[in-house]
Design brief:
This protein is an alpha/beta fold. The protein has a single domain (7-28, 47-245), classed as 3-Layer(aba) Sandwich (Rossmann fold). The protein is 33% helix and 14% strand. The chain has seven helices and eight strands. The chain has helices at residues 11-29, 60-75, 90-101, 121-134, 155-164, 205-210, 223-228; strands at 51-56, 78-82, 106-107, 137-141, 169-172, 193-197, 213-217, 243-245. It holds the Pfam family YjeF_N. It catalyses: (6R)-NADHX = (6S)-NADHX; (6R)-NADPHX = (6S)-NADPHX. Its EC number is 5.1.99.6.
Length: 251
């Protein structure tokens, strides 16, 4: 969305708004447990839901994830970022640098490489599986509504691990690997929760039928734009929340 006819929002504004919604969705669905005193050896004790693995793809969806990781850090979480195939462009470089400035654990191509030459696939896979084992919550920001199958390396491993894991997964906009209209291709994973951005996509119907938690984010759409595109958007809370829970009537 950009230009006067589509709201006049720039790409970095949209990513910031989306990423904040994503972070708020995590905080709402997987709230941090209370702070605990150090153990007998003076070691900091882990809080419930503290560790969030933010899995970022190479497009705008991944940019939303980088923004979310930054906000989650400031919310008190301990996010780590899996970003194996970086996007080109200043926006993405700045978002990654912002995460590095917070010393967030980052699984990404080496600094001297380009997105066309990521680190060795086996090293990425091992690091990703280890991160999946050590996290409390998984944030799926890999593929968005423009995804065209099939998935390619290094994301084949990611989608396979999403199918196997027992860790809760929150997907953003559309579960990675799903078709934006037709939904789950049949061999895809089903996340525990979903945050739709701006408006739910047609393909989320099978997720709704699964009974998972469904939130909506993107509290910035002008009324005129919503009317033009026929968006029947719910009212957001008056407490400043960027997300609202959606409920669906059974047909």
């Amino acid at each position: 969305m950009g230009g006067d006819d589509k709201g006049a929002f720039s790409l970095d504004q949209l990513m910031e708004l989306a990423g904040l919604s994503v972070a708020q969705a995590v905080a709402r669905l997987y709230p941090l447990g209370p702070k605990l005193p150090p153990d007998a050896n003076g070691v900091k004790q882990k809080r419930t839901n503290e560790r969030v693995l933010v899995c970022c793809g190479p497009g705008n969806q991944g940019g939303d994830g980088l923004v979310a990781a930054r906000h989650l850090y400031h919310f008190g979480y301990a996010p780590s970022v899996f970003y194996p195939k970086e996007s080109s462009g200043e926006i993405f470089s700045r978002l990654k640098k912002q995460c590095e400035n917070l010393d967030l654990p980052l699984i990404a191509p080496p600094a001297h490489s380009s997105s066309s030459f990521p680190m060795a696939a086996d090293a990425q896979d091992v690091a990703f599986r280890r991160a999946m084992e050590n996290t409390d919550v998984v944030l799926d920001c890999v593929f968005g509504f423009s995804f065209q199958p099939p998935a390619r390396a290094p994301f084949i491993t990611v989608l396979d691990e999403f199918k196997k894991t027992t860790k809760p997964i929150l997907s953003v906009d559309i579960p990675s690997g799903w078709d934006v209209v037709d939904g789950n291709p049949g061999d895809g994973f089903t996340p525990d929760s979903l945050l739709s951005l701006t408006a739910p996509k047609l393909g989320v119907k099978s997720f709704v039928e699964s009974g998972g938690k469904h939130l909506l984010g993107g509290r910035f759409i002008p009324d005129e734009l919503a009317e033009r595109f026929g968006l029947n958007l719910p009212e957001y809370p008056e407490d400043g929340s960027q997300v609202v829970e959606l409920t669906w009537r059974k047909e």
